[in-house]
Write a structure and sequence with these properties.
This protein is mainly beta. Helix content is 3%, strand content 42%.
Length: 659
């Protein structure tokens, strides 16, 4: 019983007693007259809560209000408009719109008509209308028999306005599976039987797409259980920025190979009947791994071929633009470069940066020669200048990497002077190397040849282990084509050859215009290799930022596997003297042509000083570097260039002042 009812009962009872002569002297003074006026409103309702009930309802509840006489009702307002006056502390609102937000408030009213302030408002959003849109029809359904009792199916993913939750696989019109992924392995089939499959997509609301185009699979007879041989000789070439062409050697089978399974990054993408496949729709500047397996009519599948990686080309776009530089250009200072179109770089730091400031060559490199020379000082090592009166190309460190052809006994004793770095090659990828090179002009010739021996190698590329893992290697060699021999300081007709010991490169081509390595000056050499097992590769060699001296195109890496070694230096037939020494400085190697360079001309091609900077961070719009001033002088104006993933530099340099 409410407080109001109790008070009314009290008033009636008192009146009856008074009429009967009873009662008490404590009866209210207004017992025989009108009660006093009530002007006090109830308390404001608290604890208002609202819950959506489907797309068109909302349920409200709140704590009761209090009043001097009693609350008789509540006033419910939706978006400020009264919609109900329930007597209890709850209300269900109906007839709402789906997916719509409503605001509610509640006030209390007493018997005298006094109304409390509104409660704190609450908002509630009704549910969206039911999802009635089915997913798209699955496409690209392929099927392959697996032996005599199984079939593997795969298809392209469907899309949905909300989300695809799974697929319905039907065999001969009957549902047999509901996988959540885009593949299914059917088992328990009958040998030598043809089955028809379709796939439909479904969403969380139960909407089902139309069936895909059907595909038929014929299981093998139970007798053939021998898989084809593993495909060999897988090769791939990037086709622009979105494609790749694959080819391989044919497999054999005891009955007959019926086709091949091409997998990209482990997922089946094609089942060609021939030994080639053109993959399309790839992403630019992206690395993909491919394998191929052979199958026969019985569904037997060979082991996968050796995996092969290929990187698609980047999309041609604007050259990098440097807009702002923060930080001082002091040697080894930290500078941040802001701009546009720098591109993404998988690893900011280069594969190698060696300014000869270290003490252990193997801390930077994977190997070196000589490492067992008769005289320890002839071994490849960091040394402080001057050695044999040779100074470094600049005075930033005062040291260089050097070794001597002291003995012709073998690689270790001085037949070769070289360093190399191990890395994994990517088909269609790059290798970039830059370094200063110097050869002691006081070289002692001991070969007894006329003209003097020209077999002087300056760079090597090989399967992993060293730069000469015969026969899977190639190298650059120089000599003078004018008959003066390598060891003449007056020779001007230097040529170079790209030659390989497997005879698979497009060899036998000579290039001229090389700088005489015995000319008594440091030479800045840059080598850019685009790796390709087919004719999509290239080798460019540039000296002192001039016109490229070598512009080879064709096969650059026909070797097995992906583990590689490369580096500067190499063999020289004229050995047997501690004076026959080579020197290297500021060696920079990376697996991309992306780099930052400080040059002495606003037009990069016209620069005569080019010093590589050392990236510490890299994004499309910001690069952090450690400054390498090299040959630049304090107060000199230099120009900053950024090279993108295609080797394209900024159109013009950004001016900075060297400190």
């Amino acid at each position: 019983m409410t407080r109001l009812n109790s008070l009314l009962l009290l008033v009636v009872t008192t009146a009856v007693l008074a009429a009967c002569g009873g009662g008490s002297s404590n009866a209210p003074s207004w017992s025989n007259s009108t009660p006093p006026s009530d002007t006090t409103p109830p308390s404001s309702p608290t604890g208002l809560a609202a819950t959506a009930v489907g797309p068109t309802w909302a349920s409200l509840a709140w704590n009761p209000s209090t009043d001097t006489l009693g609350v008789t009702a509540y006033i419910v307002r939706r978006n400020g408009t009264q919609v109900a006056t329930p007597a209890t502390t709850s209300f269900v609102d109906s007839g709402l719109s789906a997916g719509t937000t409503y605001t509610y408030a509640v006030a209390a009213e007493d018997v005298a008509g006094n109304v409390s302030p509104n409660s704190t408002s609450v908002s509630v959003t009704t549910a969206s209308a039911a999802d009635t849109t089915p997913p798209t029809t699955p496409t690209g359904l392929t099927g392959a028999a697996v032996g005599s009792t199984g079939a593997n199916l795969s298809w392209s993913a469907s899309t949905d306005n909300v989300a695809v939750t799974g697929y319905i696989v039907r065999r001969n019109g009957t549902q047999v599976a509901t996988p959540a992924t885009t593949s299914f392995a059917d088992t328990g089939l009958s040998p030598a039987t043809t089955y028809s499959y379709t796939v439909a997509a479904r969403d969380a609301a139960g909407n089902v797409s139309p069936n895909s185009t059907s595909v038929s699979v014929t299981t093998a007879s139970a007798a053939d259980t021998t898989p084809p041989s593993q495909p060999t000789g897988l090769k791939s070439t990037a086709v622009g920025s979105t494609g790749a062409n694959l080819s391989w050697n044919a497999s054999t089978d005891n009955v007959g190979v019926t086709g091949y399974i091409v997998r990209r990054n482990g997922t089946q993408v094609a089942t060609p009947a021939t030994t080639s496949f053109a993959d399309t729709g790839l992403s630019p500047a992206t690395t993909y791994g491919y394998t191929v397996a052979a199958r026969d009519a019985a569904g037997n599948v060979s082991p996968n071929s050796t995996s092969l990686s290929i990187t698609t080309l980047g999309v041609a776009g604007p050259a990098p633009v440097v807009q702002q530089v923060t930080g001082a250009f002091a040697h080894k200072g930290a500078v941040t470069i802001a701009g546009l179109a720098f591109g993404a770089k998988a690893q900011a730091a280069p594969l190698v940066w060696d300014d000869a400031s270290g003490t252990n060559v193997l801390a930077k490199w994977s190997g070196f020669w000589p490492d067992g020379a008769p005289t320890p000082s002839s071994n490849m090592q960091y040394m402080t200048a001057p050695i044999l009166a040779v100074n470094p190309p600049h005075n930033r460190v005062g040291r260089y990497l050097t070794g001597a052809h002291e003995s012709s006994g073998n690689f270790h004793t001085g037949q070769d002077v070289a360093v190399w770095k191990d890395f994994n090659k990517v088909e269609g990828g790059y290798l970039y190397l830059s370094y200063y090179s110097f050869v002691n002009p006081g070289w002692v010739f001991t070969g007894g040849m006329t003209p003097q021996d020209g077999n002087f190698k300056t760079f090597g590329y090989s399967v992993q282990g060293s730069i000469y893992e015969l026969p899977n290697n190639w190298y650059e060699a120089q000599w003078d084509g004018g008959g003066l021999g390598l060891w003449s300081q007056t020779a001007t007709n230097y040529e170079t050859i790209i030659n390989d010991d497997s005879s698979q490169l497009n060899g036998g081509v000579f290039w001229g215009h090389m700088i005489n390595p015995l000319g008594g000056a440091w030479v800045k050499r840059e080598i850019l290799i685009k790796t390709s097992s087919t004719n999509g590769g290239a080798i460019t060699i540039t000296e002192n930022n001039g016109t490229p001296s070598v512009t080879y195109t064709g096969i650059t890496d026909p070797y097995p596997g992906t583990a590689r070694s490369a580096g500067p230096g190499g063999f020289a037939r004229s050995c047997n003297s501690v004076l026959n020494r080579r020197y290297f400085a500021d060696l920079y190697m990376d697996t991309t042509p992306q780099r930052v360079v400080l040059a002495n001309n606003v037009v990069y091609a016209a620069a005569t000083i080019t010093e590589l900077q050392i990236p510490t961070s890299w994004s499309d719009t910001s690069i952090g570097i450690t400054v390498n001033l090299g040959s630049f002088s304090t107060g000199q104006t230099a120009y900053l260039f950024v090279f993108d993933s295609t080797g394209t530099p900024s159109a013009s340099g950004f001016p900075v002042t060297v400190q």
